[in-house]
């Protein structure tokens, strides 16, 4: 009788431990997916904000902005340049600038490149 009860207890503890491990793995996997999605959304929002400010500049002034700095000073664009690299290539006053936004990555030492 004692052995049988002990066997059930062992089974319950093992099952509980397995459920806890699965829960931890599920939370870890979900967190990674959420962070990736948030990073992609931040990248898209940054790109759109710079492009919209350039179009607004063209609508108000009749020319596209010559630099990203001009957009920052006159149109309130404030991208997080620690997280994103923004390549702003002015082409001509009447042509939309080539705007590329890339996510910066941290190297092994933790410095952002």
Descriptive terms for the model:
about 110 residues; single chain; mainly alpha; about 60% helix
Low-pLDDT parts are none
Order of helices and strands: HHEE
Helix content range: 55-70%
Q: What is the tally of helical segments?
A: 2
Largest sheet: 2 strands, antiparallel
As a percent range, the share of strand residues is 5-15%
Quick one: how many beta strands? 2
Oligomerization state of this entry? single chain
Mean model confidence by pLDDT: 83
Query: What's the alpha carbon Rg, rounded to whole Å?
Result: 26 Å
Strand order of the largest sheet: 1-2
Q: What is the terminal separation in angstroms?
A: 66 Å
Structural class: mainly alpha
Cα shape: rod-shaped
List the helices and strands and how they pair.
Layout: H1 2-61, H2 68-75, E1 84-89, E2 98-103
Outline:
The chain has helices at 2-61, 68-75, and strands at residues 84-89, 98-103. By secondary structure, the protein is mainly alpha-helical. The termini are far apart.
What does this structure look like?
With 113 residues, this protein is mostly helical. It is 60% helix and 11% strand. It has two helices and two strands, in the order ααββ. It has helices at residues 2-61, 68-75, and strands at 84-89, 98-103. The chain has a two-stranded antiparallel sheet with strand order 1-2. The radius of gyration is 26 Å and the shape is rod-shaped. The mean pLDDT is 83.
């Amino acid at each position: 009788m004692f052995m049988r009860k002990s066997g059930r207890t062992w089974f319950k503890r093992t099952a509980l431990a397995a459920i806890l491990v699965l829960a931890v793995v599920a939370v870890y996997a979900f967190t990674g997916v959420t962070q990736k999605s948030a990073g992609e959304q931040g990248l898209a929002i940054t790109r759109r904000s710079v492009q919209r400010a350039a179009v607004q500049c063209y609508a108000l002034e009749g020319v596209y902005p010559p630099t990203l700095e001009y957009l920052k000073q006159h149109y309130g664009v404030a991208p997080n340049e620690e997280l994103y690299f923004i390549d702003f290539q002015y082409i001509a006053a009447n042509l939309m600038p080539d705007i590329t936004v890339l996510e910066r990555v941290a190297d092994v030492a933790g410095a952002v490149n």
